[in-house]
Design a protein that fits this description.
Beta Polymerase, domain 2, single chain, globular, six-stranded mixed β-sheet, 28 helices, binds manganese (II) ion, 5 domains, alpha+beta
């Protein structure tokens, strides 16, 4: 038999084996039609991908089969998703069309496959924020699209070894930016953890391997300890008379890594490397009371650390997670986290969203996912939102943990962590927000921007004549409140503007100049963005209408060439203008104040430096020097998060520049001579100064406040020319 045929036979066996494995993994109920559809999808996919191979060399069809298996087994999705998963790459990569899919499987599966095809078009070159929006748009259409996408991403990550390292980094960046937080929010705990672990393996391979090795080395000790911990509990657990399991699970590698990094503790000193999980098999009706019984047994045997009790049984987490957590002092004085939950809660904790649907109807509590999806819809539909705002809102409002606060009647409101009293008012009703006059939290009067905590009781007093103003925007964090306040301000401007418009019309009529022909000339002349702004300024008497009659008119139009900067004495417009003058950076050719930008502390850019902007995931936009030691890393790995930045003006102020000065220690006068030179001769302010001497040499670090690059260069030249100074360099 020719070799090619042997290989083909082997591959056919491989494919069929994978398919049978997929069928075995399906746990949900299926009827004849489901079975037929899965078979048909499989056959279409096998045929369509028959000529394709993956980077690893294996037949391409192995990928959709495995993605379908992950959907079924690891995420717990049903037949519809399995069919769509099998077909997910066909429309993009092969000659199969959406039309065919609709004809064979109906419109639902076609829509899901279409959503997946659209997500595939995500390009690394376009801004990541746009990709984010795309993913979310498909999410609100049918959550299964995103769940299947997660399975797709997971399989690609598991097999990432066969693609080049730089592409690996890009995929890792995108995964931690979009998919890991989304998996968390959808309650897919295992998927999120694996995403983070694989990303860590890609970005920090050495540290990753190090932790894996250490976990392996300490495995026996850990198991021994867990047994010792469990031993005194078992008797009493048996007495409750319910079946239970106890698991000891190590924490994820990425969470151990974060501890080592953020808390600067070595691996050996991390006390909570593992958690003990007690899972009881009880009917829904009893699960809460049984969980608390188990809690009581655990804390009878071991002393609990009180502030570590977390009750997500009474109020589940926003992503549906339910569990009772406590930390106790175990044998040998070690802290041990104990998680207590029912089988149902465990399944929700592991599989999140999909399991949640399975039990929907079993639990009476409100459909939190539905509320969440509504929130996403609301954010997506806001036409005023630019991409950056959008991502910030999303990260703040929809990924964060949540808090619960109550009205005086005991109605619970769910708000993102960090939400304020004013957010709460808008959360009750838009009108309550608009007319919010005073707020009491737990019977004490608080400022509107007061940050709420779990369990706060909030009482809002309203007044008819109260209305939002611009300062309110600083006192809210929810996108709902923000957009309501913004539209209220807009409305106010529009309303007042009517008077302004009428006044202007009268004026122009009076001096016999056509209104329509000239109003936009005036808008431009005063530097407004649009007519309503001009009308508003007129209504507020910020523009002196009597001046207008002196303007030159040619052929019925104002002949105004120079643009006048509009600087009213007070009120709304002012803030904007002042802010603009402080904005000294153009980001993507736009004034930087549209972004929440700041200067990176790693390289302290100074006016005149070559700079670029970097969109961070949680700290707005950072301006870096092109020569920043981190620049290369950022540009090569996160190219899509880099924005162009330029200096807007040539006068700035208060930049910090660090210089290293070395020289020969010519006695006790060095510091004095240097500081004298800087402050008296150069007229610069010194922010900090440190100097170290060693055998006749010294090295000093000096932080200067400068206005621009020129001043630094002047300072460097001047200092270099001083006696005894060998080198002066700016720190990169
Ligand atoms: Mn795929």
């Amino acid at each position: 038999m020719p070799q090619v045929l042997i290989v083909q036979d082997e591959e056919r066996t491989l494919i069929q084996r994978a398919y049978r494995k997929l069928l075995r993994s399906i746990k949900t109920d299926m009827d004849e039609i489901d079975r037929k559809n899965i078979r048909m999808a499989y056959e279409i996919a096998v045929e369509a991908h028959s000529k394709q191979r993956r980077k690893s060399g294996e037949p391409y069809i192995m990928h959709p089969i495995e993605v379908a298996r992950i959907c079924a087994e690891e995420i717990g999705l049903g037949p519809t998703a399995i069919v769509a998963a099998l077909l997910h790459d066909t429309v993009e990569d092969t000659s199969v069309t959406l039309e065919e899919i609709r004809n064979r499987f109906g419109p639902k599966i076609m829509t899901i496959v279409d959503g997946l095809t659209k997500l595939k078009e995500i390009e690394p070159t376009i801004a990541q924020v746009e990709n984010f929006r795309k993913v979310l748009s498909t999410l609100v259409e049918d959550v299964r699209v995103v769940l299947i996408k997660m399975a797709d991403r997971l399989h690609n990550l598991r097999t990432i070894g066969s693609i080049p390292p730089e592409s690996q980094l890009k995929i890792a960046a995108e995964t931690s930016y979009i998919y890991a937080p989304l998996a968390h929010r959808l309650g897919l705990y295992n998927v999120k953890t694996e995403f983070q672990d694989i990303c860590l393996k890609i970005t920090e391979p050495d540290l990753y391997e190090d932790i894996v090795r250490k976990l392996q080395d300490t495995k026996d000790d850990r198991n021994q300890y867990i047994l010792e911990f469990i031993e005194p509990l078992t008797g009493q657990l048996e007495d409750i008379g319910v079946s239970y399991r106890i698991l000891g699970r190590p924490k994820s590698i990425s969470s151990i890594f974060n501890k080592i990094k953020n808390k600067a503790v070595p691996f050996e000193e991390i006390y909570d490397l593992f958690a003990v999980r007690i899972i009881v098999d009880v009917p829904v009706l009893n699960e809460k009371s049984i969980c608390w019984q188990v809690y009581s047994i655990v804390t009878d045997v071991y002393t609990p650390v009180p502030e570590r009790l977390k009750d997500w049984v009474s109020t589940p987490k926003a992503n549906g997670y339910e569990s009772l957590h406590t930390t106790v002092i175990g044998p040998g004085g070690r802290y041990v986290e104990v998680q207590i939950r029912s089988d149902r809660m465990d399944e929700i904790a592991e599989k999140g969203f999909a399991a949640h649907w399975k039990y929907k109807g079993v639990m009476s509590h409100k459909d939190r996912f539905g509320v969440w999806l509504d929130n996403i819809r609301e954010i997506l539909e806001d036409p005023d939102k630019d991409a950056m705002d959008f991502v910030n809102d999303f990260k703040n409002n929809l990924f964060n943990e949540e808090i619960f606060a109550y009205t005086p009647n005991g109605d619970m409101k769910i708000l993102p962590k960090g939400a304020t009293a004013l957010d709460f008012a808008f959360g009750i009703h838009t009108d309550v927000g608009y007319h919010c006059k005073a707020i009491k939290v737990n019977n004490k009067l608080v400022p509107m921007g007061f940050k709420l905590e779990n369990g706060d009781q909030v009482h809002v007093t309203t007044a008819k004549n109260q209305k939002p103003n611009e300062s309110w925007l600083k006192m809210v964090v929810t996108s709902r409140a923000k957009s309501k306040i913004k539209s209220a301000i807009k409305e106010e401007i529009r309303k007042k503007g009517i008077f302004g418009q009428e006044a202007l019309q009268r004026k122009l009529q009076h001096i016999k100049v056509d209104f329509e022909e000239n109003v936009d000339i005036l808008v431009k002349h005063f530097g407004f963005k649009n007519r309503p702004e001009l009308y508003y300024a007129v209504a507020q008497d910020h523009i002196n209408l009597s001046e207008i009659k002196h303007y030159p008119v040619e052929n019925g139009k104002f002949a105004l060439e120079k643009q006048r900067v509009y600087t009213p004495a007070s009120e709304p417009g002012t803030k904007k203008i002042q802010k603009k003058s402080k904005t000294i950076v153009l980001i993507n050719e736009e004034p930087g104040d549209q972004y929440d930008y700041s200067f990176a502390s790693c390289c302290h850019p100074v006016l005149g430096d070559h700079i670029f902007a970097f969109v961070t995931t949680n700290a707005g936009v950072k301006i870096h020097r092109a020569s920043c030691p981190n620049a290369e890393h950022l540009i090569s790995n996160y190219g899509y998060r880099i924005l162009k930045a330029d200096w807007l003006s040539d006068h700035g102020s208060d930049f910090v520049a660090d210089l290293i000065i070395t020289g020969i220690d010519t006695g006790p006068g060095v510091i004095e001579r240097l500081t004298n030179k800087i402050s008296s001769s150069l007229g610069l302010n010194i922010r900090s100064f440190s100097i170290e001497g060693n055998e006749g040499y010294f090295e000093g670090k000096i932080s200067l406040i400068v206005a621009n690059l020129n001043q630094i260069n002047q300072a460097i030249t001047a200092l270099k020319s001083m006696e005894g100074i060998s080198s002066v360099t700016r720190i990169d």
